[in-house]
What we know:
This protein is mostly helical. It has a domain at 3-12 and 34-120. It is 79% helix and 0% strand. The chain is globular and about 75 Å long. The mean pLDDT is 81.
Amino acid sequence: xxxxxxxxxxxxxxxxxxxxxxxxxxxxxxxxxxxxxxxxxxxxxxxxxxxxxxxxxxxxxxxxxxxxxxxxxxxxxxxxxxxxxxxxxxxxxxxxxxxxxxxxxxxxxxxxxxxxxxxxxxxxxxxxxxxxxxxxxxxxxx
Length: 142
């Protein structure tokens, strides 16, 4: 399993672990319908986020124009899925919209909080800790 798949699945597991107590809190405060909508939004967010690993695999697996087309199409399908999975229930009034969108947004906020420190550690030696404007100067002899 490649690194981006491991990262996506590990982060999805941590988000699910955080979503369960948050869903219980939503259930306690607002009731079962809002908790169900919140957890549905979390589920859509997790599926959408984990599918990012598929998009990365398709984009990096091949260097041909066909590979780029498939990867780009995967990117569009992923966002179409999220729009449909959230938009249809909202339009039909199946779930409380704010709770559903709150769960979806919470996944992306949590993923960003988890991923940014990991990404900074992963590229640690390549200037991640260097302040802006302090670059490495190279001079060539003529």
